[in-house]
DNA sequence: ACGATGATGAAC
DNA sequence: TTCATCATCGTA
C-alpha cells in the first residue's frame, strides 16, 4: 500500500521528548541543499529531557548555545562540539521546557557527526523550523516500527551525568535481519 | 588508547 | 582572561 509522504508538522514534536524520540525511528530525514535532495531513514536517536536531566545541555540553565531548546518545538538545535563536529537535534515539548531529540544515525551514515557532515548541516540550520523552507525536514513514509523492533539503551558519551547516564534514553531500530517483517 | 581541534561556560 | 570540558571520530 502506497502512503503519500507527509512532512511532520510542529505538532508532532509538541509532546514529551520520550514519546517523540521512539516515534522518529523509521521516519525519513530529508535534506535539500545545493539543488540536491537526499533522504535517509532515521535508525538511532537519543532523548534529552529538560533542566533536571544532567546530560541535557539545558541542565545548567539557558545560555546562548542552548537557547533554541527553550523555544517552540519543531525547530532544529544544531551545535558544534569537540572542535570539529556538528550535532543535529529537533526541539520537542512546550515552549520554555528545554528538551530535544539527538538524531544519531540515519540511512548509511553511522554516527551523529558523520550524518551532519554528509547532509551539510551546520550553524545555518540552528533555530530554523523543520520544514521544506529550511531545506531540512522529516517525513512519515508509512514505515511502522513496533516496540519489539527497537532497543533501548543508555545514551552515548554522557558518563559524567550520574544517574541520568544510566537512563535508557537511546532508541535504536533493530537491524533488518533482526526485524519482524 | 589517544589526539585532533575550537567553542563554550564557569571560575578567577 | 584562563581553563577544563565536550551528546565524536579516525588512527594506533
Descriptive notes:
This protein is of the alpha+beta class and 181 residues long. The chain has 4 helices and 9 strands; from the N terminus they run E-H-H-E-E-E-E-E-H-E-E-H-E. Strands 1, 2, 3, 4, 5, 6, 7, 8 and 9 form a 9-stranded antiparallel β-sheet that branches. A hairpin with a 7-residue loop joins strand 5 and strand 6 (99-106). The longest helix is centred in the first third of the chain and has 8 residues, at 17-24.
Strand residues, percent: 25-35%
Shape: globular
Topology order in helix (H) and strand (E) letters: EHHEEEEEHEEHE
Main sheet, how many strands, which sense, barrel?
9 strands, antiparallel
- Intertermini distance: 15 Å
Oligomer type: single chain
Number of helices: 4
Unreliable stretches (pLDDT < 50, length at least 5) are: none
Cα-based radius of gyration, to the nearest Å:
15 Å
Please state the average pLDDT score.
Answer: 95
* SS content category: alpha+beta
Helical amount? 10-25%
Number of β-strand runs? 9
Write the layout of secondary structure elements.
Layout: E1 6-7, H1 10-13, H2 17-24, E2 28-33, E3 36-49, E4 76-81, E5 85-91, E6 99-106, H3 112-118, E7 136-140, E8 150-153, H4 163-166, E9 170-173
Antiparallel strand pairs: 1-7, 2-3, 2-7, 3-6, 3-9, 4-5, 5-6, 8-9
This protein binds a DNA duplex (12 and 12 nucleotides) through residues 46, 48, 55-57, 60, 63-65, 79-85, 87, 89, 102, 104, 111-114, 155-158, 160.
Task: Describe this protein with a few key phrases.
single chain; 181 residues; alpha+beta; nine-stranded antiparallel sheet; DNA-binding
